[in-house]
Design a protein that fits this description.
It is built from two helices and 25 strands. The chain is mostly beta strands. Strands 1-22-21-20-19 form a five-stranded mixed beta sheet, with no helix packed on it. β16 and β17 form a beta hairpin.
Length: about 325
C-alpha cells in the first residue's frame, strides 16, 4: 500500500508539472539587428519623447552632449534631422516643464543639480542644487547627477553618483527637488548607481532601479501627499549584467534595459519576466516609448570588450515595435 501511495503522489506531481508547463506561455522575444541612428555615443542615455513636436531627446553623458532628433524625418535623412547641443557639464536626463514650450526651454539633470536649458542659446541656469538639501553644504566635486524623472506631483527625483573618471564609491543619493520651493531633499543614501524612477499606471506605486544591487525596488506612493512608503524588492535580476534605465507601459509592464547583457527585459506588474528584446551590442542603457515603438540607447565599447560587431554598433540608438504604448511623462512644476 505504501508503494502504491508513493507512486500515486509522484504521478500527481508529474501531471501537475506538465499542466504548469502547458499553461506557462513562453517569453515574448524581439530581435533588433540594425541601429536606427548611430552617433557613436560614449554613454548614450536619458531618451525622452518630446510629443509637442515629435522629437526624441537623448544625451551622451561622457561627451557632455544633448541630441535632439526630428522623428518626422525619414530614415534616409535621419542624420540631417539631428541637432546636437554641446555643454560644459555632464547632462544626464531631461524633462519638460509645465507651461513652457520645450522648443524654448526644458529641465536637465546637470553636474550639481537641476537646471533649465535655453535651447536656442545652449546656456543653462541652475534652479536647485544637491547641496541645498543640507544647510551650509557646498557642491561636491566627486558627484554628478544620473537618472531621474518627474513624479505625479510635478517634483523632480534625481539620483547622484561618483563622477566619470573617479573611483566608483557608494557615495550617491536619490534626491527629491520641489520646483516651487527650489529645495532638495535626500530620500535615499547611500547608493552607488541610482537609475530610473517611474510610476505605475494608477500612480500608486513608485519604482526605482538600483543598478549595483541588481534590484528594482517599489514603494507605495500617496496620491494626496506625495509621500512614499519604505521600499520593498519588486524584481531581483539574476544575470551578469546590471539593470539600467527603464520605462512603464500602459498595461503596467516595466521595460528594463540591462547593461552588459545585450537585452531589454519586459517585467510584469507582478515582477515576473515576460519577454526580452535582444540587441546586437552589449551595453544597453535606457529605453523610451514613442507610440508603440521603443527607442533604446546604448553605451560605447572599446576594442577587446566584445566581438567586432558588438563594438562597431555600440553607442547607437535602436528602435523596435513592441505593440503597446508607454505612459506619458509628468511635467516639472517650476515657479
Amino acid at each position: 500500500m505504501e508503494k502504491s501511495s508513493a507512486g500515486s503522489k509522484l504521478e500527481k506531481l508529474a501531471a501537475q508539472k506538465e499542466t504548469e508547463e502547458e499553461v506557462t506561455p513562453p517569453l515574448q522575444r524581439w530581435h533588433v539587428d540594425l541601429p536606427y541612428l548611430h552617433l557613436k555615443c560614449r554613454l548614450g542615455e536619458g531618451p525622452y519623447y518630446e510629443s509637442a513636436r515629435h522629437y526624441l531627446r537623448f544625451v551622451d553623458i561622457k561627451k557632455k552632449q544633448l541630441h535632439i532628433v526630428d522623428l518626422y524625418k525619414s530614415k534616409a535623412d535621419i542624420e540631417e534631422a539631428v541637432e546636437t547641443i554641446q555643454l560644459d557639464t555632464p547632462v544626464t536626463v531631461t524633462a519638460d516643464i509645465d507651461g513652457v514650450d520645450p522648443h524654448e526651454r526644458f529641465a536637465i539633470g546637470a553636474k550639481y543639480g537641476v537646471a533649465v536649458l535655453d535651447r536656442r542659446s545652449g546656456k543653462y541656469e541652475y534652479v536647485s542644487r544637491f547641496s541645498s538639501a543640507a544647510e551650509g553644504a557646498s557642491d561636491n566635486e566627486r558627484i554628478r547627477s544620473n537618472d531621474g524623472a518627474i513624479d505625479p506631483h510635478g517634483r523632480f527625483w534625481l539620483g547622484t553618483m561618483t563622477d566619470i573618471g573617479l573611483d566608483l564609491q557608494p557615495e550617491g543619493s536619490l534626491y527629491l527637488f520641489d520646483g516651487r520651493t527650489r529645495k532638495a531633499r535626500s530620500m535615499r543614501h547611500p547608493v552607488t548607481i541610482p537609475n530610473s524612477i517611474s510610476w505605475s499606471p494608477d500612480k500608486k506605486t513608485m519604482y526605482f532601479t538600483d543598478s549595483v544591487a541588481r534590484t528594482i525596488f517599489a514603494r507605495d506612493y500617496d496620491l494626496e501627499t506625495g509621500e512614499v512608503s519604505e521600499e520593498r524588492v519588486f524584481y531581483k535580476h539574476d544575470g551578469p549584467g546590471e539593470p539600467d534605465g527603464h520605462r512603464i507601459d500602459v498595461e503596467g509592464n516595466l521595460w528594463q534595459a540591462v547593461y552588459g547583457e545585450s537585452r531589454v527585459l519586459k517585467i510584469s506588474p507582478q515582477g515576473e519576466l515576460k519577454g526580452e528584446i535582444i540587441l546586437p551590442t552589449k551595453n544597453i542603457t535606457c529605453v523610451e516609448f514613442v507610440g508603440t515603438e521603443l527607442y533604446i540607447t546604448t553605451a560605447g565599447m572599446e576594442e577587446g570588450e566584445g566581438d567586432k560587431d558588438e563594438v562597431e554598433l555600440s553607442g547607437a540608438l535602436f528602435k523596435v515595435d513592441v505593440f503597446v504604448e508607454g505612459l506619458k511623462p509628468h511635467l516639472f512644476k517650476l515657479n
